[in-house]
Amino acid sequence: MRIAGTLLVVALLWPWLAWAGLDPDAKGVGENADLWRPDPMHEYWDPGNLHRPETERVKGLFQGEACLECHRVVTPGIVKEWRTSRHALTKEPVLCPACHGEDHQKLSFPGPQTCGNCHPKRLAQMEEEKHYGFPSHALAMERAVDSKHFADKPKAEVAACLQCHSVASKCDSCHTRHRFDAAEARRPEACITCHSGPPHPDDEAFFASAHGQLYRQEGKRWDWSKPLAKGNYPAPTCAYCHMKDGNHQVADKAVWKFGIREINPQSAENLIKRKRWQVTCADCHPPEVGMEFFKKLDAERTQSWRQLYAVERLLKNLRSDGLLSPSAKERPPYPIDWLAKLFPKERIGFYEGQASAFYNVSAIERDYFELWYFFNLGAYKGMAHGAKELSEQFHERMGVQVEAIRNEAERLRGQTGAKKDLKPLWMEGDYTKFNLDYN
Ligand code: HEC
Ligand code: HEC
Ligand code: HEC
Ligand code: HEC
Ligand code: HEC
Ligand code: HEC
Ligand code: HEC
Ligand code: HEC
Asked: What is the distance of C-alpha 261 from the center of its chain?
C-alpha cells in the first residue's frame, strides 16, 4: 500500500520534475514574458498559457467511461466529487473529456473559454467587466504579471500573487473542482480565500458588519440551493451584493473601487453605479437607508483623502530638500526599470507609481505606504461594508501613523548628516545579490 502510494506521488510529480529540469526555455506571460520563468505551480493558475500535458505515462484516446474506470483508481477523490456534481447528475452528463479532451498525451485544463462553450452567458458577463477597467476579475491576471515587482522578484517569493489573480483564468475559483457547486460560490467563504489581508480586508469588514454577524449566527440554516435573488436570503453575503442575481460581473457598481486613489463619486458614470447599489440595498431596506449610507461613505473617503494628501505633500517637500535617506540614487532600482536607472526618483503616492513603495525605500516612505495602502484601505473597506467600528479603529491607526510620520520628518529636518553612515540592509548580502541576479 505504502509503495503504491509513493509510486503514485512520484507519478504525479513527474511532469513537474521533467518541466523544471528539462525545459530551460520556458517563458512567462504578459508584458515581461521574456524576463521570468514560471514555477511548476503556475501551470495550474494560468492553464490556458502554461499547462504542459504529460505525455509519457498514459497513451491513447479514451471515451468518458474509460476515463472514469481508470481514474476511479488513480484519482478516486476527483471521480467521487464529479459524481455528486450537477455535471454528473444532469440528463446528458458532462464527462471528463468535455473539459480535458480525449487524447491523454494532449490533455488540457479548462479555462473560462472551455466552460463558456456551455455557459456562454456567464462567460460573457465576466468578459464585460473589461469595459469598467481595473480592478476586475477578468483583468486580474495581467494586472499581476505585468507588475514590475512580479517580474523582478524570485518566483518563489511572488508565487502567491497568482493564487489570487488566477481568478481571471479559472472559473473554478469560486465553485471549486470537481463539484462546481453554485451553492458553494454563494457563501462568503468562496470569496475570502482571496479577499483578505491588509490591502483588502473585505473578510474582516464583512464579518464585523450587521450582515456578517447575521450570517455567522444563522447562515447554517439558510437554504443555499436558492439563487441570490430578492426574498431568498434574510441577509446578504459578498456575492449577493456584488454579483446580484448571479451576474458574473463584479465591476459594474464599483465607485471607490480598490480605494487607493481619490475619485469623484458624483461623476455621471458613478451616479449610475450608485443607483445600481441603491437598487441592491432596496431588496431589503427602505430607499433612505441606501441614500444615507453612501453619503456617509463619500464623506469618510473625502476626509481620509484630505489627510493623505497632507502627508503626501510633506514627503514631497522632504524629497525636494534632499532629506530622504537613503535616496533613490543610493538604492538599487528594479532591475527591469530602465527609466528609474536613468532618472532615479523617490516615487510618492499613487500617480508616481505604487510599485516603488513595496520595498527598497526609506523608513518614512514605507510608513507613508502603510498609512495609505493598509490603514486607509482598512478604513474604507470597514465603512463600505457597514462595519463602522472597524473603520474607526483604522482611522485611529491612521492618526497614530500620521503623527509618527510628522515626528520623523521633524527629526530628518533637524539632523546633521549622521544617518548617512548606516548601510541599508538591501544594498548587500546574499538575498539582495540573488534578487538582483535572478528572478
Ligand atoms: C489507464 C488509466 C487512465 C485512463 C484510461 C485515463 N487516465 Fe488520466 N491519468 C492517469 C494517470 C496515471 C494520471 C497521472 C499521470 C501523470 O500525471 O503522470 C492521469 C492524469 C490525468 C490528468 C492530469 C494531467 C496533468 O497534467 O496533471 C487529467 C486531467 C486526466 N488524467 C484526465 C483523463 C481523461 C479526461 C481521460 C479520458 C479521456 C483519462 N484521464 C483517462 C490514468 C488514466
Ligand atoms: C466541468 C469541467 C471538468 C470536468 C467535467 C472534469 N474536470 Fe478535471 N479539472 C477541471 C478543472 C477546472 C481543473 C483544474 C485546472 C487548473 O488547475 O487550472 C481540473 C483538474 C483535473 C486534474 C488535475 C489534478 C487536480 O489537482 O485536480 C485531474 C487529474 C482531473 N481534472 C481529472 C478529471 C477526471 C478524471 C474527470 C472525470 C471524472 C474530470 N477531471 C472532469 C475541470 C473538469
Ligand atoms: C459540455 C458542456 C459543459 C461544460 C464544458 C461545462 N459545463 Fe457546467 N454545466 C453543464 C450542464 C449541462 C449543467 C447542468 C445544468 C442544469 O442541470 O441545469 C452544468 C452546471 C454547472 C453549474 C451549476 C451547478 C449547480 O450547483 O447548480 C456550474 C457552477 C457549472 N456548470 C460550472 C462549470 C464550469 C466552471 C465549467 C468549466 C470548468 C463548466 N461548468 C463546464 C454543462 C457544461
Ligand atoms: C481566486 C481569488 C478570488 C476569488 C475567489 C474572488 N476574487 Fe474578487 N478579486 C480577486 C482579485 C485578484 C481582484 C483584483 C483584480 C485586479 O487586480 O484587477 C478581485 C476584484 C474583485 C472586486 C473589485 C472590482 C472593482 O471594480 O473594484 C470585487 C467587487 C470582487 N473581486 C468581488 C468578489 C466576490 C464577491 C467574490 C466571491 C463571490 C470574489 N471576488 C472571489 C480575486 C478573487
Ligand atoms: C490574497 C489574495 C491576493 C494576493 C496574494 C495578491 N493579490 Fe493583488 N489583489 C487582490 C485583490 C482581492 C485585489 C482587489 C482589491 C479591491 O478591489 O479591493 C488586488 C489588487 C491588486 C492590484 C490593483 C489592481 C488595480 O487595478 O488597482 C494589483 C496591481 C495587484 N493586486 C497585484 C498583485 C501582485 C503583484 C501580487 C503579488 C506580489 C498580488 N497582487 C498578490 C488579491 C491578492
Ligand atoms: C467570483 C466568483 C465566481 C467566479 C469566478 C465564477 N462564478 Fe459562477 N457562480 C458564482 C456564484 C455566486 C453563483 C451563484 C449565482 C446565483 O445564486 O444566482 C454562480 C453560479 C454559476 C452557475 C450556476 C447556474 C447559473 O447560471 O446561475 C454557472 C453555470 C456558473 N456559475 C458558471 C461559471 C463560469 C462559466 C465561470 C467562469 C467564466 C464562473 N462561473 C466563474 C460565482 C462565481
Ligand atoms: C451589503 C452589501 C455588501 C456585502 C454583503 C459585501 N459588500 Fe463589498 N462592497 C459593498 C459596497 C457598498 C462597497 C463600496 C462600493 C463603492 O464604493 O462603490 C463595497 C466594496 C467592495 C470592494 C471594492 C470594490 C468595489 O466594488 O467597490 C470589494 C473588493 C468588496 N467590496 C468585496 C467584498 C467581499 C469579498 C465581501 C464578502 C466578504 C463583500 N464585499 C460583502 C457592499 C457589500
Ligand atoms: C438580503 C437583505 C439585505 C440586503 C440586500 C441588504 N441588507 Fe442591510 N441589513 C439586512 C438585515 C437583515 C440587517 C440587520 C437588521 C437588524 O439588525 O435588525 C441589516 C442591517 C443593515 C444596517 C444596520 C447596521 C446596524 O449596525 O444597525 C445597515 C446600515 C445596512 N443594513 C445597510 C445596507 C446597505 C447599504 C445595503 C446595500 C449595499 C444593504 N444593507 C443590503 C438585510 C439586508
From this structure: 18
Mean pLDDT, the chain cut into blocks of 10 residues (439 residues total): 54 44 62 87 92 90 96 97 97 97 96 97 97 94 90 83 96 96 97 96 98 98 97 98 96 95 96 97 97 97 96 96 88 76 87 67 90 96 98 98 96 72 60 64
CA of 144 to the centre of ligand 5 (A): 7
CA 34 to chain centre: 23
Rounded Cα–Cα distance for residues 314 and 407 (Å): 11
CA of 165 to the centre of ligand 5 (A): 7
Residues 6+ apart with CB under 8 A from 61: 102, 103, 104
The residue with cell 513603495 is 357
- 318 C-beta neighbours (distance < 10 Å), count: 21
Q: Is residue 126 in contact with ligand 3, taking CB distance under 6 Å? A: no
| Cα–Cα dist 302/306, whole Å | 6
How many Å lie between the centroid of ligand 4 and the Cα of residue 138?
9
